[in-house]
Amino acid sequence: MPDQPQVDSNRKHRPVWQLRDLDLRRILLGSFLLMIFLCVFRYVRLGTTIDQWLADGPFAASTDILTAPQALSVGEPMEVKEVVRSLRQSGYTGSRDNPEGWFEDHPGAIEIFPGTDSSGAEGR
């Protein structure tokens, strides 16, 4: 009968400072993998939240802070195309229900109607 290896019965009751190197490596590797998993999990959740926030349009009202009101006088000589381009950049459209404002383009003239959210609406 060959000699059987002896089983260390005290192994289960050893204090932490008496663990073998292999046991410490396993504990450290497990802790490291758990930390990486938690970091990736939090990163994905935060990324999803930020992607949703950006999709909703955090800069939807940026025309209010990025452009100053431009005063136009009746009969002021300007190209119609230039005024239309400027109005579109400021958020104006041809739709009457636009809160920024709307305009009607006529041959040789433009009618401009500031909306409730327009900076030009304050002067009415």
Strand content: 5-15%
Proportion of residues in helical segments:
40-55%
Sheet bearing the most strands, described?
2 strands, antiparallel
Number of distinct beta strands: 2
Number of domains: 2
Summarize the structure.
This protein is mainly alpha-helical and 124 residues long. It contains 3 helices and 2 strands, in the order αααββ.
Structure overview:
By secondary structure, the chain is mainly α. It folds into two domains: 13-56; 63-119, no CATH class. It is 40% helix and 10% strand. The chain contains three helices and two strands; from the N terminus they run αααββ. The protein has a two-stranded antiparallel sheet with strand order 1-2. The protein is rod-shaped. The model has no long low-confidence stretch (mean pLDDT 77).
SSE layout:
Layout: H1 21-56, H2 63-66, H3 80-89, E1 101-106, E2 109-114
Antiparallel strand pairs: 1-2
List keywords for this structure.
single chain; mainly alpha; 2 domains; two-stranded antiparallel ribbon; rod-shaped
